[in-house]
Design brief:
2 copies of one chain form a homodimer.
Chain A: H1 16-23, H2 29-40, H3 42-46, H4 50-56, H5 61-70, H6 76-93, H7 108-129, H8 132-144, E1 148-152, H9 155-169, E2 174-177, H10 180-187, E3 195-200, H11 206-217, E4 221-226, E5 239-242, H12 254-276, H13 278-292
Parallel strand pairs in A: 1-2, 1-3, 3-4, 4-5
The first copy, chain A, binds a DNA duplex (30 and 30 nucleotides) through α2, α4 and α5.
Chain lengths: 301, 301
DNA sequence: TCACGGATGAAAGATATTTTCGGTTCGGTG
DNA sequence: CACCGAACCGAAAATATCTTTCATCCGTGA
């Protein structure tokens, strides 16, 4: 046979349409119909069986197989796999382009995509902007602390609790305070060697600044986790950990991205401390996991 | 026009590895072997027939088909097509970034980078795996609810509180419960038209399942947010929202990524509800922002 | 130890793909 | 105009592949 059949299985599939055009002249009428269908709608054809494609093009299975052969595949099965790949590439090629704000009439799928994208963005920004020296210093302070108090209100209060839960798990003594009065009352107890952490996005939440100030004045090592590195809270902070602030919109208040950002910082603190106290932290983590096992119903299998 | 660009043939293609991770715990040993082979080498497996893959993994055809089913495909044939698509994407697109686990002696900068990367991964996986139909249904239920109760314990308890805070801000009546007894006591009060949401990564936390069951039996619409779509909690859930499970390591327990995942789902719920009740939600959001203004010290430049 | 329930694979059954083969069309030819 | 041959085409048989069923096996808990 003089025509040189080039093996394209495993080579870029993007040339399929071109190949169809090249080979079209040497095809019989029915084969052209099949080839055309395949070139026009790879994804759709990938979903069809030989019989289906034969019916769609008004031809027979044999013709479909012959066409597949002509296009360089061992049979229809392999053409179909290649089509699936092509379809996937086309799909992924289309950039989601989710740069716009979330709109009131966005379908739910868009909401998911946009939120996920924005939170990813927030994480990247936070990681990029985080001062590792400050972080390291904060970790150092936590590692040697006699006790640690964490202040946060509203959404930041949950982050404070999250940090506290984690620190407790590795054997540190930590408390979260969201009641301003109790926070101050406790802050008075702190002294050198203790750590106080304030979490506030705006950096100007009085109820959180106040206990930090008291802790600061009593000699505790103070840390601020805030999105505004020039805000009042930093005034009383030995170490400032900056969270990133992303675009906010009406349907996505700042609290949402700041929470993501704060949690990343908190996780970094936790892992940092766990590293430095690995000898005690690892068994403590294992133990707390163990202790909870019986609270879970037997796993179905 | 369908907005689900990730979907081909009804199954998300981009998240296969994530899906394997999510479902792995509920798989039998042999099925895990098959799933692992598929996740490790999509391209290679796409070239194999059922029999071939069965031999490769040392199992039987039946097991391969069962695994394909579990992964959400009608049969092996469709899994194979999806694999071909995945392979094409991987080959053409970016090489999948491989990160190592966080090690005890990683410098702090690496810790930040790895954590941020893994959380981003978790977000992407969650978004890809989230069933928008279920999400939409849950949003619909929340929108018309007389009242909403949210159950969560430990880290999930914080997520429950986060959701509650948000819903309250847009004028819904919502409560978070982390005390199992109080939760059940309150669940008894629920009736048709009310909504109960259980948040549990393992899906088998008895203290969270119990109130959901009670709510379910009293006619409330029930929602489960869990990383195990086949776990006991789903038994009493009208709508199941699946969070993704990422690789966990000693220094990065599962709780960390599950929290990220859960929060994304919660945010989606919130935004969804806010969209549908925009007329009342927007002013409510503005009002709550307004009310807090005086609690912040005047902002310095 | 035994009984039980789920996990597993061998083989039967169903479907899809490939091959075979004979009918049909079409252009050329006597 | 009748005939011939070659290529085209599709129905159906043959084969490969996938799916389902069912008996066995294995681990588990009493």
């Amino acid at each position: 046979m003089t025509r040189d059949v080039k093996e394209i299985f495993g080579s870029p599939v993007g040339s399929l349409a071109a190949k169809v055009r090249t080979l079209a002249p040497s095809m019989t009428r029915s084969m052209q119909r099949v080839a055309e269908a395949v070139a026009n709608d790879p994804a759709g054809c990938a979903a069809l069986t030989v019989t289906g494609l034969a019916e769609l093009t008004g031809t027979s299975e044999a013709t479909v197989v012959r066409t597949a052969r002509l296009l360089g595949y061992p049979g229809y099965r392999d053409l179909r796999l290649a089509l699936a790949g092509l379809a996937a590439q086309q799909q992924s090629g289309r950039a989601p382009a989710i740069t716009t704000d979330i709109a009131v009439d966005d379908p739910i799928a868009d909401v998911v995509a946009k939120l996920a994208y924005e939170e990813q963005q927030t994480l990247a920004d936070t990681a990029a902007g985080l001062d590792t020296a400050q972080l390291g210093a904060a970790v150092g302070a936590l590692t040697g602390a006699r006790r640690t108090d964490v202040y946060g209100i509203g959404a930041s209060g949950l982050v404070a609790q999250d940090l506290t839960q984690k620190l407790l798990r590795i054997g540190l003594i930590a408390h979260a305070h969201s009641d301003p009065h109790l926070a101050v009352t406790n802050a008075v107890q702190l002294r050198s060697g203790d750590v106080a952490i304030a979490i506030t996005h705006s950096g100007s939440t009085g109820d959180v600044i106040e206990p930090l100030r008291v802790a600061f004045e009593h000699g505790a090592t103070t840390v601020a986790i805030t999105g505004r590195p020039d805000s009042p809270v930093t005034q009383y902070a030995d170490h400032v950990l900056t969270t990133s602030t992303s675009r906010e919109s009406e349907l996505r208040p700042a609290a949402m991205s700041s929470r993501t950002s704060q949690l990343l910082v908190v996780d970094c603190l936790f892992v940092g401390v766990a590293q430095r106290t690995y000898e005690t932290a690892a068994p403590a983590l294992a133990a707390s996991y163990e202790a909870l096992a019986h609270r879970h119903r037997t796993n179905p299998r």
